[in-house]
Specification:
Radius of gyration: 18 Å
Distance between the termini: 35 Å
Structural class: alpha/beta
Shape: globular
Strand content: 25-35%
Number of helices: 5
Order of helices and strands: HEEHEHHEEEH
Strand order of the largest sheet: 1-6-5-4-2-3
Number of strands: 6
Largest sheet: 6 strands, mixed
């Protein structure tokens, strides 16, 4: 029993060390300063110029769900903003199901990611993520990370930092 607890603690410590080692510098700023994401907020991922492969985006969506965010596609997020409520349902399909999964239509955010790629080193040298409130079109969170690891490691670090900004209530 003690051995199992020791290995769990060792694994947790290793995971935390790996997460913090993924960036040489990290800067995260919220606007306003004490901004918190409401519980069960919805996030859609906007992947500019398909810089990040689909498997990484899918992994990011799953990680965001694990920490408490609802994730939807960008087209469905914009439709939800347009509807500002539950759409009239004649026929249920995957698109309508995803829109209905949104709990709070005033808490829909867009994740905009860009990164500078270093072709020689094979990893991104700088990753920037902005979180934009889709209702007001205002940026509510800036995140910058100087990277020394894979894009997946950097995005996992981002989600870890982002989860600290979720309201407990």
């Amino acid at each position: 029993m003690r051995k199992m607890i020791f290995y769990r603690k060792l694994f947790l410590f290793s995971a935390i060390c790996m997460a913090f080692a993924s960036c040489s510098f990290v800067k995260m700023t919220t606007v306003p300063k004490y901004f918190r994401f409401p519980k069960e907020s919805t996030i859609c991922i906007l992947n500019y110029n398909s810089q990040i492969d689909e498997s990484t985006v899918l992994s990011l969506r799953q990680t965001l769900k694990k920490v408490g965010f609802n994730t939807v596609s960008y087209p469905n997020a914009t439709k939800a903003i347009y509807y500002k409520g539950k759409p009239s349902i004649k026929y249920k399909n995957d698109e309508i199901e995803e829109i209905l999964s949104i709990k709070d239509f005033n808490s829909i955010y867009e994740l905009r990611m860009t990164f500078k790629d270093d072709a020689i080193k094979g990893y991104p040298t700088e990753v920037k993520v902005n979180v934009v409130d889709m209702n007001t079109k205002q940026i509510v969170l800036y995140y910058t990370c100087g990277s020394e690891k894979s894009i997946k490691a950097v995005l996992n670090k981002f989600v870890l930092k982002l989860s600290e900004k979720i309201s407990k209530y």
